[in-house]
Amino acid sequence: MFSQDNLKYDPIPLPDHVAQCDADMATAAKGFFETMARRHTVRDFDKTPVPRSIIETSIATAGRAPSGANHQPWFFAAISNADLKARIRAEAEVEERRFYAGGAGDEWIKALEPIGTNDHKPHLTDAPWLIVVFAQRYGEFSDGMRYKNYYVPESVGIACGFLIAALHHAGLSVLTHTPNPMKFLTPALDRPASEKPIMILAVGRAAQNATVPAVAKVKKPLSEIMTVWD
Fold this sequence. Notes:
By secondary structure, the chain is an alpha+beta fold. It has one domain: NADH Oxidase (3-Layer(aba) Sandwich). It has helices spanning about 20-35, 50-60, 80-105, 105-110, 125, 150-170, 185-190, 220-225, and strands at about 75-80, 130-135, 140, 145-150, 175, 195-205. The strands form two sheets. It has a four-stranded antiparallel β-sheet. Strands 3-4 form a two-stranded antiparallel sheet. The longest helix is centred in the middle third of the chain and has 22 residues, at about 80-105. InterPro entries: Nitroreductase (IPR029479), Nitroreductase-like (IPR000415), Nitroreductase/BluB (IPR050627).
């Protein structure tokens, strides 16, 4: 980050520079694709504890994501406390009942049918960890003076991608959960008004009997998600 008295450009040589030949890069790209192709969103979690160090290292990876003006406008609240997870589940399910009772609209509910979701969210207490992601709408210097953050949704979204990839790489499963609204998370986790909760990640090992909806295995082919201009 930067400080109020150090707002100047100071270039340094590129650290950690690694030069690879085309063949090595292709192998690395294919290997990472194959790793991420084995990522699945699950709702059935093994309750076996996951070491805190794994969560911390994964969040540290998320903190290496690029961000607008390098302001790093994110905060991650990692929760393993059973009582707090139960509180979050209870409050999230209140919002979910409203959602499925008509708040979402018929079209949205219809779109969710192949996923098999409802207002019952046991993963919020079954998963050993919940990670609540907050977006920092603005920052503050030590004297209380505010400064603007830039490209906040884009920056936090990239960091979430880093985090999910890091957790998967560590052998953990992740479920993204977005109750709407999520305002209850701010006081529950004692976060400031400058931050907006945007996502809950349920994190742990997949249960032995875990299932995924068949439709989740249907991915768009490359031809539908990419255009190349050589």
